[in-house]
Automatic annotation (TrEMBL):
It comes from the Bacteria. This is ABC transporter. Keywords: ATP-binding, Nucleotide-binding, Transport. InterPro entries: AAA+_ATPase, ABC_transporter-like_ATP-bd, ABC_transporter-like_CS, ABC_transpr_LolD-like, MacB-like_ATP-bd, P-loop_NTPase. GO terms for cellular component: plasma membrane. The keyword Ribosomal protein does not apply. It comes from Streptomyces caelestis. The lineage of its organism: Bacteria, Bacillati, Actinomycetota, Actinomycetes, Kitasatosporales.
Length: 230
């Protein structure tokens, strides 16, 4: 990946995305443009079906737009082939999903270490990073527990630690508190706000959670396939 230090972490220009064709086509995104400055925590809101997941998948290189351009950390995603996109996702982006996505048979510590194993990080470096991240998310005492032995909020904190394992420049989270009760959700969002600062990452988070909407540096709203800025 080309290493260009830019002050803009994400630049989305006139992105369009439709599903299906003809009369049955759904125009999920109709000309979306916005920027996420480096170091900011940007919340993305919008009613169900407004295109939040579609947009996050496109920014994260999991899906391609029909039209428009997306730049992440200085790279134009259209210039990257499958391997390039894979490397971008593995080395530069951390993902957090609503359903946590942890591996059930691995302990919390092993789950956090997965991205480091994929990168073939030195085992000692891996252990140190895992320990630090579990402390950061308040789970140092739960390292040996499997996801099924952790509460929902704890599982999402493990997922957040895993997303940060490779020092990503961009954290993408899709309704990370969608499966949590309000109080647990608030705690996870406050943690997210804190780690964005302490780990110097940039974050783009789809959410309805009012805690995060209040804590975010900026709130973008998707409506009718376009962005309304607050
Ligand atoms: N794979 C797909 N095939 C067809 N239509 C799709 C597909 N994925 C999404 N859509 C449609 O695109 C629109 C945007 O969906 P998207 O999942 O991006 O919304 P969302 O804002 O994330 O909603 P939610 O808040 O419910 O998660 C919806 O109308 C949806 O039905
Ligand atoms: Mg969604």
């Amino acid at each position: 990946m080309r290493q260009v230090v830019t002050e803009t972490m994400v630049r989305v220009e006139d992105v369009h995305k439709s599903y299906g064709t003809g009369a049955a086509a759904v125009h999920a995104l109709r000309g979306v443009s916005f920027e996420v400055p480096r170091g900011e925590l940007v919340a993305l809101k919008g009613r169900s079906g407004s295109g939040k997941t579609t947009l996050l998948n496109i920014v994260g290189g999991l899906d391609a737009p029909d039209r428009g351009r997306v730049r992440v950390d200085g790279s134009d995603l259209a210039d990257l082939d499958e391997n390039g996109l894979l490397a971008l996702r593995r080395d530069h982006i951390g993902f957090v999903f609503q359903s946590f996505g942890l591996i059930p048979i691995l302990t919390a510590a092993e789950n956090v270490g997965v991205p480091l194993r994929l990168r073939r990080a030195d085992p000692r470096e891996r252990e140190e990073r895992v320990e630090l991240l579990l402390s950061l998310v308040g789970l140092a005492d739960h390292a040996a527990q499997r996801p099924g032995e952790l509460s929902g909020g704890q599982q999402q904190r493990v997922a957040l630690a895993r997303a940060l394992a490779n020092h990503p420049s961009l954290l993408i989270a899709d309704e990370p508190t969608g499966q949590l009760d309000a109080e647990t959700g608030h705690a996870v969002m406050e943690l997210l706000r804190a780690v964005v600062r302490s780990e110097h990452v940039t974050a783009l988070v789809a959410t309805h959670d009012t805690t995060l909407l209040d804590l975010a540096d900026r709130v973008l709203e998707l409506s009718d396939g376009g962005i309304v800025e607050h």
